[in-house]
Amino acid sequence: MDLNLTTEEQQFRDELRAWLEANSPQDWDQWREKPIEESFEYLRAWQRKLYEGGWAAVSWPKEYGGRGASLMQQAIFWEEMARVEAPPMVNSLGLGLIGPTIIAYGTDAQKKRFVPKILSAEEIWCQGFSEPNAGSDLAALQTEARLDGDHYIVNGQKVWTSYGWVGNWCEVVVRTDAEVAKHKGLTVLLVDMKSKGFEVRPLRQMTGESEFNELFFRDVRVPVENVLGKVNDGWNVAVSTLMHERGSYGARLHLLFKRSINRLIELSRTFQKNGRAAAQDPLTRQKLAQCYAEIEIMRWNQMRAFSRISATGIPGPEGSIQKIFWSELNQRVQQIAQEMMGPYGQLLAGDSHAVDKGIWAYGYLRTRGNTIEAGTSEVQRNIIGHFVLGLPRSY
Amino acid sequence: MQFGLSESQEFLKDSARKFFAGECPIAEVRRLMDTDTAYDASLWSKIADQGYTGIIFSEEYGGVGLGKVELILLVEEAGRALLPGPFFSTVALAGVVIDAVAGPEKKKKYLAPICRGDARSTVAVLEASANWDPAAIQIAGASGKLTGEKLFVPDAAVADFIVVVARDGVFVVDAKTSGMKISPMKGMDLGRKLYTIQFNNTPAEKLGDAAALSRAFDISTAALVAEMVGGMQRTLEVSVDYAKMRKQFGKPIGMFQAVQHQCADMYLETESSRSAAYYAAWALEENAPDASVAVSIAKMYASDACRTVGNRGIQIHGGMGFTWENDLHLYYRRAKSSETMFGDATFHRERIARQVIDSGANFAKSA
């Protein structure tokens, strides 16, 4: 056990630090608060810059424009990005999930056609997995693709698609064989979102925003060369995408949480609780300390998991622990913020009395989704029960 | 960066597990807990033969000279076996305190026999206030004599000498000294017996100043968390095994999500406690600036987790879990005793708050 950085990790960090110092934008503060629709081109340009510096997808193999970074290096990457408060990358699904899946399953032609433009954010990618009747039970999906000569004809509906409004391409899981067991009749298609019959509608979520979209397919024609992997092997391709969903995501989250708790500690000195500063209120102190502690444990869990994955080479189901841990913790952090702020906690952006421009009211609502998106807490506990502890499958 | 165990650390952990399973199976635990002291001389000499009593102490005093990570791996396995008797008190309490506060002469006198396995010891901290804050300690020993009462002293009846924390230093009292009365307390944990000690003008030798005590207590606390992790691990394993085997409504109960999710939460709580214990041990070894906060984080989290894991384990076992015959309550009793030792979650949350709210320090390092 040695938690110090290796020479290699240190070099990686120093090189990145130097690059970020020279290249990370200084005017992000002016854009940060704006709706993503307005800042999108700014962010696209930022990703292009990262791409040109070779930093857009450090985890990818070198031959595809990455750096073959270890999990530790990936964690370092996100920590450094957060340290300088660099803007996010806009093609996050392409970089984090879909690109790696195309690299793993794609034909040479597909890799050549799609991969560079994912890195440069020239083409934005979306994920068409969930459906109104297929959430946790993804394999029950109903969107169907019928072969017609050298094209598939796709009909159906997808939901919870991020970046749908700005997407160019979409990784879509469809049913190509309805006669076999539900996992066995699925195929993954790479769909041009400008295709005829393809419609994107905003999906308004409980926060009032539309982070997500619904996708409608009406006789959308997809050429057979856009099948990713083998026909009727879509389940394995999709699972491979979902495995990447866990990966190093937590490293990014840890720093966001850290910032939240530090800000809450700051605010506890000004908010009053039971006639004194909240920072002096025993119960508030207990709750802040609990959150602070769990945010640290979240990082230590992550580091242990990374070390284990580095040793075995496969991202295993331990990712499920992380998902439960951070999503439930994030809700508790938001809850303590609300308790501390009392009536101020509910004030949204735009109200002159709102704390921190309403981020706490927003966060309180937004974190409700954390235990649902990217695999519900119930599904994560099933995964631990079955795949880690070896209990019989419950469904 | 590598937050996994090295080959030699894995080896130590693995051989400790086999050793405790072989020499102190649960039947032996039950036999010893029915004795007055839970101490067995032949088990003790086998533990000493393994070098376990000197694991982290310098070779100069006959120790093995390993680090804090090795100490907690060993104690974790002792906890998994629910090892009864004075091993923890002697090594992780008395040995660690002597090592931190005493000079070379006193170490030769007191630490060396611990390393050799010739002496058993313990540390007397709490008084009637039951406050783990050293500032609450009343007893004084500067005159060379101690008068007053210590409570909740583990394994005092089998100690050859007792380390006493006073408000003006750390002292040691020979067990054979007259003017000291050791009486058992009826604690919940049957494997770690608790005692009161009354001192009445009892001659005491000064070991050293109390200044180095906070670091010693941090090491002892990290070791205690590791012991708790071992207990949680065992509770998790037997509960999962039971959930696979026990059938109701024609199915293993582990197939029901209400049961399965309890198991998943036990796993999460156990692993998170383990991450915290290992990190704290490493931070202590490296003298990292966040070492003390890390210890409090670990003890805070594990104090709640070990109780919760026990609750879940007993619940999963249903009626069987409520019987004397089932072993879970033995772990559950130990969990309660460990929860309060060196301060429970509430105590440590306040300690964390003092460091991160009051001083405004931010210990979290980035990679």
Q: What do the pLDDT scores of chain B average to?
A: 96
**Assembly state (oligomeric):** heterodimer
CATH topology of the largest domain in chain A: Butyryl-CoA Dehydrogenase, subunit A, domain 3
Structural class of chain B: alpha+beta
Silhouette of chain A = globular
Proportion in β-strands of chain B: 5-15%
CATH architectural name of the largest domain in chain A: Up-down Bundle
Instruction: Tell me, rounded to a whole number, the average pLDDT of chain A.
Output: 93
Helix content of chain B: 40-55%
Approximately how much helix is present in the residues of chain A? 40-55%
Shape call of chain B: globular
Please report which band the strand proportion of chain A falls in: under 5%, 5-15%, 15-25%, 25-35%, 35-45% or over 45%. Answer: 5-15%
Question: Strand sequence of the main sheet of chain B, in spatial order?
Answer: 1-3-4-7
Report the span from N to C terminus of chain A: 39 Å
Using only CA atoms, what is the Rg of chain B? Answer: 20 Å
CATH H-level superfamily of the largest domain in chain A: Butyryl-CoA Dehydrogenase, subunit A, domain 3
Q: Which parts of chain A are unreliable, with pLDDT below 50 for 5 consecutive residues or more?
A: none
Q: Which architecture of the largest domain in chain B would the CATH scheme give at its second level?
A: Up-down Bundle
Helices and strands, with pairings:
The complex is a heterodimer of chains A (395) and B (367).
Chain A: H1 7-23, H2 28-32, H3 36-52, H4 71-83, H5 92-105, H6 108-119, E1 125-128, E2 144-148, E3 151-162, E4 169-175, E5 186-192, E6 198-203, E7 212-223, E8 227-228, H7 234-246, H8 249-268, E9 272-273, E10 276-277, H9 282-312, H10 319-341, H11 359-366, H12 377-388
Parallel strand pairs in A: 1-4
Antiparallel strand pairs in A: 2-3, 3-7, 4-5, 5-8, 6-7, 9-10
Helix pairs in contact in A: 1-4, 4-8, 5-6, 5-7, 8-9, 8-10, 9-10, 10-11, 10-12
Chain B: H1 7-23, H2 26-33, H3 41-49, H4 68-80, H5 87-101, H6 104-116, E1 121-124, E2 145-154, E3 161-166, E4 169-174, E5 180-185, E6 194-203, E7 205-208, H7 213-245, E8 247-248, E9 251-252, H8 257-285, H9 291-321, H10 328-340, H11 345-358
Parallel strand pairs in B: 1-3
Antiparallel strand pairs in B: 2-6, 3-4, 4-7, 5-6, 8-9
Helix pairs in contact in B: 1-4, 4-7, 4-8, 5-6, 5-7, 7-8, 7-9, 7-10, 8-9, 9-10, 9-11
